[in-house]
Specification:
single chain; Photosynthetic Reaction Center, subunit C, domain 2
């Protein structure tokens, strides 16, 4: 081999590169990424949008039902305040009654309608 030092250096670089696989970082908490998070504090930030999509589907609405478009942190819409109260209620019911299996959700009562259904259709 003509340049053993170069070969050793190259091998060391390649080995280091192979070991430089950093572990994936856990997502930041919702309140670190989004503004005005109140009920979803501590939830991983990558779960916020899927949760919002679930809420929207459960109530049969779009984002602008609760949020001011392009100003999601604003609390200008009464539906957003109601949603927070309802989510706290859902958490309380699940925590106090189903701690091992969170079965109560928005869908349970709303079934795609803004007004909860209290009796079968």
């Amino acid at each position: 081999m003509r340049c053993p030092k170069l070969a050793v250096a190259l091998a060391a670089v390649l080995l280091a590169r192979g070991q430089d696989k950093t572990l994936p970082q856990a997502p930041k908490a919702a309140e670190e990424v989004y503004k005005n998070i109140q009920v979803l504090k501590g939830v991983p930030s990558d779960r916020v949008i899927p949760a919002m999509m679930f809420f929207a589907k459960s109530l049969g609405v779009q984002c602008d039902h609760c949020h001011v478009p392009d100003q999601f942190e604003k609390d200008d819409k009464p539906a957003k305040l109601t949603a927070r109260r309802m989510l706290r209620m859902v958490h309380e019911i699940n925590d106090n009654n189903f701690p091992d299996n969170k079965i109560v959700s928005c869908w349970m009562c709303h079934r795609g309608s803004v007004k909860p259904q209290s009796v079968p259709q």
